[in-house]
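quick one, 277 residues, struct below
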Amino acid sequence: MKKNKNVPKSIIDLPIKCTPLNLKELLNYKELLYFFIWRDIKIRYKQTAIGFTWAIIQPLMLMLVFTFFFGGLAKVPSDGIPYPLFSFSALLPWTLFSEGLTRSTNSMVSNSNIMTKVYFPRLILPIAGVLSPIIDFLISISILFIMIFYYGYISKVKILFVPIFIILCIMTSFAIGIWLSALNVKYRDFQYALPFVIQIMLFLSPVVYSSNILPEKYQILYSLNPMVGVIEGFRWVLVGGSPPELKVLISLSIVVILILSGLFHFKKMEQYFADII
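---
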């Protein structure tokens, strides 16, 4: 019996074309997406003594440090909001963003053994990386609501807007993560530079200070950082203040541009991932 020379030896040898984003295909692989998300959560807390409590400790300890140095010693203005509440309400979306960005950036490289053996939409990996920190966020936000009740800000919470800014935060993480995940396959420098970049972005975002301390002429330029609108909006819906409408619109515009261009770049590079990685 003759062998068919046209039959590929493995799935890696199959020709892959740069195709448009296929949402239906992503839906067909939703169980695989759930698997990657749940696997990331289990790996994160595997063999830990206190488990999900780490989701609370990280932002809580940062809040205490920021409150002591910035709120206490440096007397950084906090728009009349108690500084612990001011900083913690910003640290939660920031932690969701930074964790999602880190996991999505490294998602392709950390799953290289799977990518070279089995076909699935590669976009699932950065999506799973962005979504897996949500459990940590939901645990941490319970502490924030306790603080809001303690400081008497419960009447200022605009509960219907909270999911909107959570979604915008996830979109921001995905918008940057989809770019970096594809670039990290070819240039591994990104995974080493990312922690440094995240640290810089922390202080370029209104986490430890209010954006109102900046002169008016710099506000638009400052708002080009998409996390400015996310953090200011999240803080507004939970503890009050002036609605950052323009900053949110700028952030949303930047995020949409990054997502659309990132999806195009990702799909263009997807056919080479298995060979490069």
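The chain is about 70% helix and 0% strand.
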